[in-house]
Design goal:
alpha+beta; Tetrahydropterin Synthase, Chain A; seven-stranded mixed β-sheet; three-stranded antiparallel β-sheet; 12 strands; 44% strand; binds zinc ion
Length: 160
């Protein structure tokens, strides 16, 4: 049997508040928001100092990524149901027969097909792994990200 080391973080700095309109079953949800809470687990070999990765460093890198989503409308750029066009510094969103106009500065466009907790977890995991690798974390083999939309309701994605 082989053992594995893992560190995990969550808590107050790993939160963001954002609005979205997820789609399901050919329809678009009404505009609404969540106070999202994110959990992160990183598994890998121990460094020479006997840790997988420094908690504070992991938290700082993750918080920087979540800041990009905080107080924004999360736009699923690859949606076939929510159409978005940029007109004069604003996003025009067409969904369910309605048009919403939002300043571009209030929108974060994500290369995903839907703003489900699962897809947000996948996007965060990809960004986080790239940032960790750029910071020299070649020992991390598996990275799991959980995105909680509301207490007791999370979507997870595992890389590796
Ligand atoms: Zn929602």
């Amino acid at each position: 049997m082989q053992g594995a080391f893992r560190v995990s973080i969550d808590g107050s700095r790993l939160r963001f508040a954002a609005a979205h309109m997820a789609t399901f079953d050919g329809r678009c949800e009404p505009l609404h928001g969540h106070n999202y809470a994110v959990s992160i687990e990183a598994e890998g070999d121990l460094t020479a100092d006997g840790w997988v990765w420094d908690f504070g460093d992991l938290r700082r890198i993750a918080a920087g990524i979540l800041d990009e989503l905080d107080h924004r409308f999360l736009l699923q750029e690859r949606s076939s149901l929510l159409r978005a066009t940029i007109v004069g510094g604003n996003y025009e969103l067409h969904a369910g027969g309605q048009t919403y106009v939002l300043p571009c500065s209030d929108v974060v466009a994500l290369p995903i097909d839907n703003t489900t907790a699962e897809r947000l977890a996948e996007w965060i995991a990809g960004r986080l792994l790239a940032a960790l690798r750029a910071n020299g974390a070649s020992n991390i083999r598996r990275l799991a990200v959980g995105v909680e939309e509301m207490p007791g309701q999370s979507g997870w994605y595992t890389l590796g």
